Write a sequence for this structure.
């Protein structure tokens, strides 16, 4: 099964890439842009049939390795 | 007495640390990241570099190298453990120190001497220094920006576990003197027991006059003194 | 009618006929692919080879001269140094980050292929005006690529140099030089000797990235559609390279390697054929054993792939198991892909079938050589006639304001502070000074390095310009206390099929050769980059010199720019030609003139001045070469870096802004009397809060510092 993991910086913590990109978008005239947040997308292919089980396994992977729970949030999406 | 300098694939400051310790008359051995027994060492240094390419997240993969289980055991037993730059990042990822290090405020790698002020001497990193000392030491990092949840930072400050803070040459903590945007200008911290410490600047790069500064020596000497006081073979 | 395959591969009809003659038959597709890359300008030097023999290449201390992966010189007591320079101009234009990054990776492999540990990198770079967003993007991308790769692979970058001119707008120059050191017994060459020895491919998997990249990109001119060539740019992986360095160095240490070659341009074709040809042998290569990144690659694609971070080691059969185990320890992939055979044929198999069989040596030795037509450019007389119209009186302080604001003359720390320039604890004199000085730990020896180029002066007079950059580089190492010891050169030129460009090339080679001969310094390696043109406009002829200096022992306290103190005297050493303004920064920046004919180098004066510099380096706090911007800028840099002003006694403003060669400033304690080091005279005293030129005006030090620090960053913001 293909699983998509999205990892973002926890709200309130410094996100220099986001700040810089926000500035660049405003320079380009996109004044409507509010906060910009950076993150990573990781696609993991997992052997398994049960989506809930796969979901739980990948969440465990996030807790242990893929994300840093001290500073990052994550969302796991089983794409099937 | 010997000190173990841990080498992950991608580590690059290991020989520099061994050299600087040698200048202080201390012998150190390199320990490959697959080793699981460092019991013969009186102290452990995680040197700078790009362990495992810094891929995924700096320190994230190194944290699971076999040697880290042993480092955690020694840390628990009170053995001096020092993380420099990438080593600091790894100690944070491993949960041996709180917080994390993210990209510099200016999104540029910074390699230049900066100033840090000694904030506490209650650690293996600063025991031989004096509170208020200003040290000029090279910084060399892209991810040197210390962050942690506000409550954790407050707890660190409360407990006096901030060891080094970025400052200007006179010792004043100012925003322009903060080279990477670290919260509370934090450059180095320790655990509650004071035996595990991490810092972003490189004391080994400031340990000989010919290289421009000897201000890093007092930090390495603190660490060596703590290691000397510990019996090996635990 | 479709175009013949060889033409789509960049090969002329005559060259194709030569292949048919060599093989005595029509080439198979894989064979044609190999010849097309190996006979490209980039790999074969077909337009330049006839002239490169002019360079002096011999000296008693030369261990390996031009032709190998890097030049090697003897430092005594069993120590050797390896030096190499390369260009990554075309890939960096297409994709600045990866182009510059893979340039660093490639040059490092050239160094550790020789058995040396790479200890430092320099990056001379050139761009068009920063007024254009595209050039800002290129500069930022190139610097980030150098930093991203160099810092992560764990080799310090000690700087380089930077120039700006419109001619580089469509064609930036990204050169890269690396230095390594080794002990004599670890020297390895790229020869595959010993029938039955095994060729082991180490490192990254082979993919379709960079097929024909370096060679095709660097062997033809550019046009607007170059972005479409992006897929042929290689992606660098500094982590893989770091592991490869450590694995290879341990292989050498254990004596497990008979010969080794890195995989660069033309990938496996080049490495296997060169190893075999250098050893006078042949090789059987089995493509089924090559670790591939993608499915369905054709033999031609596998042979031509320029995937990065790969090495080919020649190993005795009984050592293969140990080599593979060592690779596994360092987490580097390795597989045996070939066997050394007698007879000189390179035979390539896939699925058991023979897909190519060529004489290994023919890929390099039978490559075409051209003596292309040369012609002195018709425009040169008009350019000489357009000499700078130098006024009678000048506000030197005002001129200095403009000069310090020039991005090529202002503070370059925005660039070099992104590079780790201290790793390995060897950096005694780092970036921001004339030359870098590295110690060799455990010895008294020092290695000084400078890279220098001057595109504008070489355009105005390629022979004189070529000579002057060699002399300038020599002086830059001398002011650290080192004697000029060896040269590598990177010759960046336009389209060699134009007679004017070939004329410039030959003139530059002549000028550089004369200077090297006068200095007694051998050329131990080099690189030629042609086709640096866009839209029919050629770049300035831009040779870049990498000068290695050597001292044993090092000065106890090598001079640096930041060591001047109040009350010290500033002495100007060297002869003066007060009318030498052609190609000067004053003419370019203040007068807006880029014409005239610069003075020639003066071998006798140059040698005397270098000897003086080496002597003074033993005890002077500050020595500083006088180059772009003349005495005024050189002195201002000392003042700014040391944080102290100066009071200048100048009889004529021209002596502060002219750029005659072979001059440097020495800042000495007040009691010192160096007047026997003729020609020398005292021109200033350190002190005060301004750079004070008397009747030619004064510039407050704080203002000078502010202008100088912001010259580059403000243009990049």
């Amino acid at each position: 099964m293909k699983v998509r993991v999205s990892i973002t910086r926890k709200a309130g913590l410094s996100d220099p890439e986001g700040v810089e990109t926000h500035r660049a978008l405003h320079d380009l005239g996109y004044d409507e842009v509010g906060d910009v947040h950076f993150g990573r997308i990781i696609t993991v292919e997992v052997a398994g049939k049960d989506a809930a089980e796969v979901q739980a396994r990948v969440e465990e992977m996030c807790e242990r390795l893929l994300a840093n729970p001290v500073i990052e949030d994550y969302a796991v999406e089983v794409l099937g | 007495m010997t000190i173990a300098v841990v080498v992950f694939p991608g580590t690059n400051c290991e020989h520099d640390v061994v050299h600087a310790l040698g200048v202080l008359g201390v012998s150190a051995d390199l320990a490959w990241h697959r080793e699981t027994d460092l019991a013969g060492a009186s102290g452990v240094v995680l040197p700078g570099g790009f362990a495992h390419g810094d891929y995924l997240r700096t320190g994230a993969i190194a944290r699971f190298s076999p040697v880290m289980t042993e480092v955690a055991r020694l840390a628990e037993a009170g053995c001096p453990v020092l993380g420099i730059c990438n080593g600091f990042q790894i100690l944070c990822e491993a949960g041996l120190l709180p917080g994390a290090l993210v990209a510099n405020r200016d999104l540029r790698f910074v390699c230049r001497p900066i100033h840090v002020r000694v904030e506490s001497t209650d650690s293996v990193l600063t025991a031989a220094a004096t509170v208020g000392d200003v040290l000029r030491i090279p910084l060399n990092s892209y991810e040197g920006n210390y962050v942690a949840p506000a409550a954790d930072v407050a707890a660190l400050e409360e407990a006096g576990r901030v060891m080094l803070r970025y400052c200007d040459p006179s010792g004043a903590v100012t925003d322009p003197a903060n080279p990477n945007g670290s919260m509370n200008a934090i450059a180095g911290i320790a655990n509650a027991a004071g035996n595990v410490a991490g810092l972003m600047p490189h004391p080994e790069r400031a340990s000989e006059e010919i290289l421009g500064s000897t201000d890093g020596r007092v930090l390495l000497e603190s660490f060596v003194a703590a290691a000397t006081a510990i019996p090996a073979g635990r | 009618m479709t175009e013949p395959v060889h033409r789509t591969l960049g090969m002329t009809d005559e060259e194709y006929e030569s292949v048919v003659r060599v093989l005595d038959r029509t080439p198979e597709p894989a064979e044609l692919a190999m010849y097309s890359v190996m006979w490209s300008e980039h790999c074969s030097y077909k337009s330049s080879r006839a002239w490169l023999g002019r360079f002096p290449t011999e000296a008693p201390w030369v261990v390996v001269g031009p032709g190998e992966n890097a030049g090697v010189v003897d430092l005594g007591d069993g120590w050797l140094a390896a030096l190499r320079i390369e260009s990554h101009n075309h890939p960096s234009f297409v994709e600045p980050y990866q182009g510059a990054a893979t340039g660093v990776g490639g040059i490092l492999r050239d160094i550790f292929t020789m058995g040396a540990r790479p200890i430092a990198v320099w990056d001379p770079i050139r761009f068009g005006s920063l007024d254009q967003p595209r050039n800002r993007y290129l500069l930022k991308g190139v610097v980030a690529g150098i930093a991203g790769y160099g810092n992560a692979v764990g080799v310090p970058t000690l700087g380089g140099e930077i120039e700006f001119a419109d001619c580089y707008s469509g064609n930036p120059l990204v050169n890269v030089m690396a230095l390594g050191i080794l002990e004599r017994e670890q020297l390895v060459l790229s020869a595959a000797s010993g029938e039955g020895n095994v060729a082991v491919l180490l490192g990254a998997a082979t993919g379709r990235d960079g097929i024909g990249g370096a060679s095709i990109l660097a062997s033809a001119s550019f046009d607007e559609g170059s972005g479409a060539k992006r897929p042929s740019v290689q992606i660098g992986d500094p982590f893989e390279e770091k592991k490869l360095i450590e694995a290879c160095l341990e292989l050498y240490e254990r004596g497990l390697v008979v010969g080794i070659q890195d995989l660069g341009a033309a990938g496996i074709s080049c490495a296997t054929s060169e190893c075999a040809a250098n050893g006078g042998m042949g090789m059987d290569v089995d493509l089924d054993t090559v670790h591939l990144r993608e499915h369905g690659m054709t033999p031609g694609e596998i042979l031509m792939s320029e995937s990065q971070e790969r090495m080919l080691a020649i190993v005795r059969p009984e050592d293969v198991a140990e080599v593979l185990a060592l690779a596994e320890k360092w987490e580097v992939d390795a597989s045996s892909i070939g066997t050394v055979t007698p007879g000189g044929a390179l035979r390539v198999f896939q699925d058991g079938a023979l897909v190519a069989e060529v004489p290994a040596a023919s890929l390099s030795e039978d490559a075409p050589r051209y003596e292309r037509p040369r012609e002195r450019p018709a425009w040169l007389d008009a350019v000489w006639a357009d000499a700078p119209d130098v006024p009678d009186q000048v506000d030197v302080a005002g001129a200095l304001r403009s000069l310090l604001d020039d991005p090529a003359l202002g503070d370059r720390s925005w660039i070099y502070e992104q590079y780790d320039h201290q790793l390995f604890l060897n950096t005694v004199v780092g970036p921001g000074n004339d030359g870098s000085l590295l110690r060799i730990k455990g010895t008294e020896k020092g290695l000084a390095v400078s890279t220098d180029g001057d595109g504008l002066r070489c355009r105005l007079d390629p022979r004189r310009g070529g000579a002057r950059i060699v002399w300038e580089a020599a002086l830059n190492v001398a002011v650290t206390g080192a004697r000029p010891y060896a040269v590598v050169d990177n010759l960046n030129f336009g389209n060699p099929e134009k007679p004017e460009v070939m004329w410039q090339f030959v003139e530059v080679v002549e000028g550089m050769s004369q200077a090297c001969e006068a200095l007694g310094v051998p050329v131990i390696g080099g690189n030629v980059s042609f086709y640096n043109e866009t839209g029919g406009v050629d770049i300035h002829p831009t040779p870049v010199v990498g000068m290695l200096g050597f001292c044993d022992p090092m000065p106890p306290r090598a001079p640096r720019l930041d060591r001047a103190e109040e009350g010290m005297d500033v002495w100007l050493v060297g002869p003066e030609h007060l009318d030498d303004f052609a190609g000067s920064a004053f003419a370019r920046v203040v007068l807006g003139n880029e014409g005239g004919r610069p003075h020639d180098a003066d071998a006798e004066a140059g040698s005397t001045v270098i000897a003086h510099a080496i002597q003074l380096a033993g005890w002077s706090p500050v020595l500083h070469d006088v180059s772009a911007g003349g005495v005024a800028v050189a002195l201002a840099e000392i003042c700014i870096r040391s944080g102290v002003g100066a009071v200048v006694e100048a009889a004529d403003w021209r002596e502060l802004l002219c750029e005659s060669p072979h001059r440097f400033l020495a800042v000495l304690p007040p009691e010192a009397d160096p007047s026997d080091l003729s020609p020398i005279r005292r021109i200033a005293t350190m002190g005060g809060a301004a750079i004070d030129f008397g009747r030619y005006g004064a510039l407050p030090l704080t203002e000078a510092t502010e202008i100088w620090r912001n010259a580059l960053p403000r243009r990049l913001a």
